Amino acid sequence: MSDTVSLCGLGNMGGAVAGRLAARGPLRVFDLDPARVAPAVEHPRITAVGAVGELAASDVVLLSLPAPKISRQVIAELAPRMRAGAVIMETSTVSPADMAAERELCAAHGIGIVDAAILSGVAQMAEGTATLLVGGDESAVDRVAGVLEAISGSVLRFGPVGSGMAAKVINNAVAHAVMVVLAEAGALGAATGVSGSALASLLSGPEAGLTRPLTHRFAERVLRGDYDGGMPTEAARKDSTLALAMAQDGGVPLFGIQGAHTVYELGVAEGLGRLDYASIATLWERWTGRPMGEAPGDQETDAE
Predict the structure, then answer these.
(1) Using 50, 70 and 90 to split pLDDT, how confident is the model at 215?
(2) How much is the mean pLDDT over the chain?
(3) What does the H/E/C string look like for the chain?
């Protein structure tokens, strides 16, 4: 890294980020808690400053802070003092709306901003195996490419400011929803004599219920708007009805699967019955007025 780099916030994740950055070059840090600063400055390349404003002399300042309000306060103090063309990198967990507010604060002083959401945990960050989900103007992201590389070898670019944070929220929402469905699947298995380990093996296969909807139906059908052929929506509704009946027989409460069934009922009612069941995505396109389809060159995020 040729740019001078600073980090504000030395919590559990911030401490791990500091270790990654210091392994590549000098780093200045600030935290209000001396107990967090003390172990960080044991590294020969890390220097602590006495006030957050002293970080403004750096070309790149990373934030790893506990709340969006604190991030905005820090940016409001730093941005007027930073040189034009410098970049603030937000690694704290904030929303896309928070990133928009931070961008306004930076833009008023000619400062770039990049959101670099951390997908993995502290241990992965310390090991260098964390994944960064990045959003920001291309020029700003390019400016901090060396810093991103120092933190992680897995960097995914998603688009404008806020898109990295949005991608993290979406990813986590999917994980949490899938966990509900998996719990329901396990309960259905227990009620019908299906081994949990055998069920896990089945669902993890490339053609099974977890992977195939992503790799085929979303990536190959929804993003291309291609719903001809395949398994019809009315057949998916039939299979869903069987699952509901099996759950009723076994006394298994359903929430995620029950809710999903409603969508297939709506899809058939809206004339999607003979199209591949991925066509239920068009319901959301109608409801939101935003298409999901992409040109072939736009269907993958940029990885570094």
Answers:
(1) very high
(2) 96
(3) CCCCEEEECCCHHHHHHHHHHHCCCCEEEECCCHHHHHHHCCCCCEEECCCHHHHHHCCEEEECCCCHHHHHHHHHHHHHHCCCCCEEEECCCCCHHHHHHHHHHHHCCCCEEEEEEECCCHHHHHHCCCEEEEECCHHHHHHCHHHHHHHCCEEEEEECCCHHHHHHHHHHHHHHHHHHHHHHHHHHHHHHCCCHHHHHHHHCCCCCCCCHHHHHHHHHHHCCCCCCCCCEHHHHHHHHHHHHHHHHHHCCCCCHHHHHHHHHHHHHHCCCCCCEHHHHHHHHHHHHCCCCCCCHHHCCCEEC
pLDDT tens digits, 116-169 = 999 999 999 999 999 999 999 999 999 999 999 999 999 999 999 999 999 999
